[in-house]
Amino acid sequence: MYKTKRKRGVVLTSTGIKRLQSAIRSVEIVENKGKHLSLEEISSRINVSSRTLSKLWSLSESVDQKTIKLCFSAFNLELHSGDYTIPNKANETETSDLLSIANIEEDSSQPSELTSFIEEHHTQTKQIENLWSYPDGPVPLDSHFYIERPPLEKKVYREITTNGCVIRIRSPKQMGKSSFVLRLCAFAQKLGYQTVNLNCCQLERECLTDLNKLLRCLCWKIATGLGIDANLKEKWNEEIGYNLSSGFYLENYLLELCQNPVVLVLNEVDRFFEYPKICQEFFVLLRSWCEEARHNPNWQKLRLVMVYSTEEYISMDINLSPFNIGLPIRLNDFTQPQVEDLARRYRLDSFKAKDFAQLMSLVGGHPALIQISFYHICSQEMTLQEIIEDAVANGGIYRYHLRRHWIKLQENPRLAKVYAEILAGKQDISFNLIDTYKLEGLGLIRFEGDRVLPRYGLYQSYFAKQLLTVV
C-alpha cells in the first residue's frame, strides 16, 4: 500500500492574475497618486505576510484558497472559480506561459512582486491596450476608468436607504447617467435590496398609446425583474380601472411578497413626453405612488429612481408632477482635475497643461468625448493634434456623436432654427422656454444667468457649418 501524495493549495490562473493586476492598479491610481504599491504595502492592506504573497505572485507555489480570497476582497473583487486552480500538469503550461510573458524567472532568488509584473507589462502596452474595449455605453463596475462625481455618489447611497425615497437623475445623453445608476444599483444590492432597471426606450409604441397596456407591461417587467410570476390574469382587476388596478397589484402583490426594499429605476423617462395622450396621466399616477410611501408600509419598500435628459415639456399641476419631489441629481461635465485623473488612468503621462487646455477647449469636460479622445491617443491611432484637426470631419472620431445630434435637429426644424440663432449670437431674441429646455436636454447649449450659450468648440464649429441654410 502506498499513500497518494496530494498537493494542497491553489494557484492563480491567467484570468485571476489579470483581474487582480487591474484592481491593484486601479487602487494605485485612485489612492496612491498612480505610484506602485510595494509588496509590504499590499501585505499590510490584505493582512497576510509578505512571504505568503511572494508565493502567490510567483504563480508556481500554491497557497490556500482563503489567502486568495483575502487578496481579492482587499481590492474590492469577488473571487470567481476561474481565478484559481489546483496545481497539476495541465495548468503548469498556463503558469509557465504567464511567467514567460511577464519575464519572471521561476528560479529567481528575489521575490517577484505583482507591481514588478505590472511594470514589466508596461513595455507591452500595445497588447494591453488592445484588450481595452471601446468606450461606448456604461462603464463596467470593475473598470478603473470610472470617474466618481463627489459628493453625488454618497448622496444617492445615503438617500436610497430612506423609506419610499425618490431620486431624480438628470443630464444630457452620454454624460454618465447609466454608469452612475449601475453603481447605485450595485450598492443597493450589497444592502440586500432587490433592483429592477427598466429602460423606457424598450417599450413598444403600442404600449405608449394605451395607458392600460403600458401599466400592464410595466407591472409585468417589474415582476419579472424581481423573479416573481407576473400572474396578471389573476391579479389584474379590470373592473376597478387600470390606475387602481396597477396600484393594488404593486402594493398587495409584488411589494407584499418582497421582504426587502425594491429599487425601481425608470431610465429614459422623457420618452413619455413624445406621447402626450398618456403622459400626464402616467406621471400623475407615478406621483401618487410616491405619496403613498409616506404612510403605507408596503409602498415604503419602493425606492424610485427616475433618469432622464430634460425637464418636463408638458404643463402639469405642480402638486401632481413627480419632477419636483425627491432628491435631484444633475451630472455635469468633468472638471479639469477629473479629466487629468482619467488621463493618468489611461497612462497618458506625457499630457501637459497645454494639451488639457486644447482638448477641453474642443470638447469641454464631456465624459464620453473625453473618453473617446483618450482611447484613440492611448491606442496610438491618432495624436491630439490630429484629433483636433479632424474633429468636425465626417470621418473624425466624434462623427457618430455629432450625427446623432444632427439627426435630432433635422427631425425638428424649429429647434434647428433656434439653435442656429444661438450659434449666431443673437441674444436679443426672446427664445421659447421649451425650445431651450430641449436644446439643453440634448446638451447643445448651457445657461449662464439669463444668457443662452452654445456648448463646446466642437459643436460650434460643426453645427455652424451644418446650419448655414437654416437661419
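The record above closes out task 2.4. Task 2.5 opens with a second protein, given below.
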Amino acid sequence: MLSFDPDDTGYLTELAGYVAIPSVSRDATPETMRAAAEWLAGQLAFADGRVVPTEGHPVVRADWLGRPGAPTILVYGHYDVQPTGDLAEWTSPPFELTVDAGVMRGRGCSDDKGPVYIVLKVAQAFLAQEGGLPLNVKFLFEGEEEIGSPNLPAYLREHAEELAADLVISADGAMWRPSEPSLSIASKGLATLDVVVEGADDDLHSGRFGGTVANPLHALVEVLAGLHTREGSVAVDGFYDGIPELSAARREEIGRVDFDEASYRTGLGLDEVFGESGYTTLERLWERPTLEVNGVTAGGKYTVIPHVATGHVSCRLVPGQRPDAVLAAITAHVEAAKVPGVRVSVRPDSGSVPAYTIPADHPAIRAAAAALEDVYPGEEVLLAVIAGTLPATALFEDVLGAKTLFFSFSTADEKLHAPNEFMRIPRLRQGMRAWESLWRLLAEGPHRLAPVTRPSADVPTSSERSTTP
C-alpha cells in the first residue's frame, strides 16, 4: 500500500498554484492556456510530460510504458475551466484556492483540476515508492472540454496508434452525490441549436411602429412554447424515436435507489418538480431525454421592436437517439410553425454527441466497484447515470475501440460551472487510495484487463454512421 503525505497542507498549496491559472478555454489568452498545460506537463515529467499543439488549445501528453505485457490504460481529463459568472456571487476570489470548513473553493478545483491532481499524485507515489506503475499508463489532458472539445477528434484520429489502450479512465465526470460511492454507467448525449426569428431590417421604435408589424420576440416565444406539451413532454414528432421502452426491471432497479424527492425539491428552492409525465423524477433524470430552452437573445430594456430574436436550445439525449435525427425533427417542427410576418429558421450547432453507455458487468466497472469498496468499506457502490455529457467518451470508443470508465472524486453538488465551485478536501485522499487500488486490480488478478479489439480502419465509426443519410 502506498504512503501519502500525512496531512493535506502540501497538496493544497500545490493545487492552489494550479487553480490560480485562469484557464477559461472560452476566452483566455493562448499564453494563459499554455501556462496551465505546462503546469501539468511538469507534474508528468516522470513520463515525458509534454505540451503538444492542436488547431486550438494544446493537449498534454505523457506515457509510462515500463510494464511489458501488462495492460495499458489511457487516463483522460482536462485543464480548462468554465467562466466565473457573476463575480459578485463568489464569496472568495474564483482563482484563489480558499480552504473553509473542510472544503476547498475555486474555479476548476472540482471540474477538473482537483480530480486530475489526484491521479498525478498517485502516479508519482508509485514511482517514488515502488519504482514503477503496476500497469502501462498513457495520459491525455485537453484544454477544450468546456467548449465541446472541438479539436480533440482530429487530434485523436491523427494519433490513434500512439494513444491505443485497453481502457480509458476519465478523471472527469463527478460522482452523483456525496452520501455514497458511485460509478456512472452512462452519460447523456448532446445536440444544440438556435431558433432564429427575423422581422424588419432594423430595430423599430415601439411607439412609431408598434401594432403595425410582427414582433420577432413575440413570435419566438410562441415557437419555443410549442416545443413542449403542457404536461412536460417534448411535442416534436420524432424526438423520441429509437428510445427503447423503460423496462419494468430497470424501473424497479431505479426505485430501489435511496432518493428523497422532497429533499431534492427543497434543495433547489422549489415548491414542486415538473417534467415528462409517466415517469418518476429519478427516471426522468437518468433515463429520459430533455429539450431545454437555455436562453433568449433579443432587444433589451428599451422601447424597441427587435428585428431579430434568437432562442438557444439544448437537448440531452439517451441511448437509441441519433443526434442528427433529433436536430432534423426539431428543424421540421419549427419550420412548420405558421407565424405571420416573420422569417423563422433553425441553426444547428456542430459537435453533437450521442449518448454513451458501459455495461454494468464490464470488467472495468467490477474492478472500480472493488476499489471503491476498499476505500469505503461497508458502503454499497451505486451505479448511477451522468445526466450531463462528456463528448470524449463516444470518440474514444469510435477511434480507439476502448470503453471509458468514469472515476472522478468530485461530486455533482459541488457547484460545477457555478459561482463558488468547491471540492471536499477528504476526497483528495480517498481518491488517491481508490486510484491506487484500481490500478492494482486492473493490472493483475480476476479484474485484470484483457486486450480490446481495435476498430478496423476501413469500417465507419458509429459517429460516421450516425450522419449517413
